[in-house]
Amino acid sequence: MNDWVIPQDWSGYSPEQHAMWDTLFSRQLEMLQDRATAAFMEGIDVLRMSKPGIPDFAELSQRLHNATGWTVVAVPGLIPDEVFFENLANRRFVAGRFIRSPEQIDYLQEPDVFHDVFGHVPLLVHPVFADYMQAYGQGGLRAMKFGSIHRLARLYWYTVEFGLIRDAHGLKLYGAGIVSSHGESLYALGSDVPSRLQFDLKRVMRTEYRIDAYQRNYFVIDSFDELLRQTLDTDFAPLYAELAGLADIEVDTILSSDRVLNRGTGSRTGP
Ligand code: PHE
Ligand code: CO
């Protein structure tokens, strides 16, 4: 199968583009000091990501491969689901090569190289998270056969992109969509608007999400081990069948069955 991989063309970046990376990087690194989970900061260290400029995927992949066998490859923006899953299942993380323009510094619709590489790659150094991402890719290929990609996508959204974790130092960020966003890094831990709920696999797979606003719900895990164990040990096929008969849950609804760690000011009580 065509894997959609293209050359990163690292030498094609302009000095302004490298400078944009540096601006984003230093701003986020400071923001995340006491907000991101330790594993994320460790990944930044191990991968020597503080080296100035947009990382060269070849060099980054070498370090990452030594740690957990993952590599980072460039793709031209959005790719078909099957190709995305297939790459993950083979421990290849697909990343966009373009970087946002100065006008887009705080908001852009499509993931760029800063989101993809700064946001996602550090955690791939963590052996358990690395296994989770591969299992997710395999699970995606399987979900396609059941027509249930949208439910599995919610799991990705509320863990890989917008997950929170309770680690030894308290409530911390690990989702790539949060750690690569200046505004949402502050909001996810500090705002009283969103709710923070204990992670629950089935609940998450029923929960809608919005891609154009900060989250109204964050789901909190206790550890990557627990996340991996739960998702690996559960056969999703019967779960998909069961979920087909249940209504979706809106983003601002709290159920009586939820373990609410923190109730947001905007939330409503659901059916
Ligand atoms: N256990 C899941 C299944 O049966 C696969 C999976 C593992 C999905 C880990 C996501 C994360 O389909
Ligand atoms: Co992402």
Number of helices: 12
Name the helix and strand elements from N-terminus to C-terminus, one letter apiece.
HHHEHEHHHEEHHEHEHHEEE
Radius of gyration: 18 Å
Query: What bound compounds does this protein have?
Result: phenylalanine, cobalt (II) ion
- Estimate the global geometry from the Cα principal axes: globular
Structural commentary:
By secondary structure, the chain is α/β, with parallel strands linked by helices. It is built from twelve helices and nine strands. The strands form three sheets. A five-stranded mixed sheet has the order 4-3-6-5-8. The radius of gyration is 18 Å and the shape is globular. The model has no long low-confidence stretch (mean pLDDT 96). The site of phenylalanine has 9 residues, from α6 and α11.
Layout: helices, strands, pairs:
Layout: H1 15-32, H2 38-46, H3 57-68, E1 71-75, H4 81-89, E2 92-96, H5 113-120, H6 127-145, H7 149-161, E3 164-167, E4 170-173, H8 176-179, H9 182-190, E5 195-198, H10 201-206, E6 217-221, H11 224-233, H12 236-243, E7 253-254, E8 260-262, E9 268-269
Parallel strand pairs: 1-2, 3-6, 5-6, 7-9
Antiparallel strand pairs: 3-4, 5-8
Bound molecules: phenylalanine and cobalt (II) ion.
Phenylalanine (PHE) is lined by residues 135-136, 139, 142, 231-232, 234-236.
